[in-house]
Amino acid sequence: MEKAVLQPSIFVLCDSCRWCATYTDKSRARDRCPSCSSSALSSFPVMPDESFTFSYDEKRGIEMDFGRRRR
Ligand SMILES: [Zn+2]
Predict the structure, then answer these.
(1) Range list of β-strands (E), the chain
(2) Which domain, by its residues, includes 50?
(3) Residue 1 falls within a domain, yes or no?
(4) Residue 62 CA, ligand 1 centroid: distance in Å
(5) 22-27: which pairs have CB atoms within 8 A and are 24 or more residues apart?
(6) Which is more confidently placed, 18 or 68?
(7) 70 Cα–ligand 1 center, Å
(8) 18 touches 42 (CB < 8 A)
(9) Which of 17, 31, 32, 39 has the smallest count of CB within 10 Å of its CB?
(10) Is residue 44 part of a domain?
(11) Ligand 1 centroid, distance to 69 Cα (angstroms)
(12) What average pLDDT does range 1-24 have in this prediction?
């Protein structure tokens, strides 16, 4: 059985200004926020077979939702 190589995307979030981006190639991720130049960046991988939603609300804060994609 052949196994596909799952390349995780990298989700990067700025802790300072809430800028965020998803990089499909982690070598392109920066270590500084392009918006406010802060180095306080959080990053974590997002697997291609996971659904991922991100929302930011001033009252509720950051909401992140991970789940398995339905096939
Ligand atoms: Zn920032």
Answers:
(1) 9-14, 20-23, 41-46, 50-57, 61-68
(2) 9-68
(3) no
(4) 15
(5) 22/46
(6) 18
(7) 33
(8) no
(9) 31
(10) yes
(11) 30
(12) 80
User: When comparing pLDDT for 70 and 60, which is higher?
Assistant: 60
Q: Is residue 36 part of a domain?
A: yes
Residue 71's pLDDT band (boundaries 50, 70, 90)? low
Interior CA angle at 12 toward 59 and 27, to 5°?
Answer: 175
* 3 CA distance to ligand 1 middle (Å): 38
Distance from residue 21's CA to the centre of ligand 1 (Å): 11
Cα-to-centroid distance, 32 and ligand 1 (Å):
8
Total domain count, the chain: 1
In the structure, ligand 1 is a single-atom ion and the residues with CB under 5 Å from it are 14, 16-17, 19, 33, 35-36, 38
In a domain, 2, yes or no: no
Which of 49 and 5 is assigned the larger pLDDT? 49
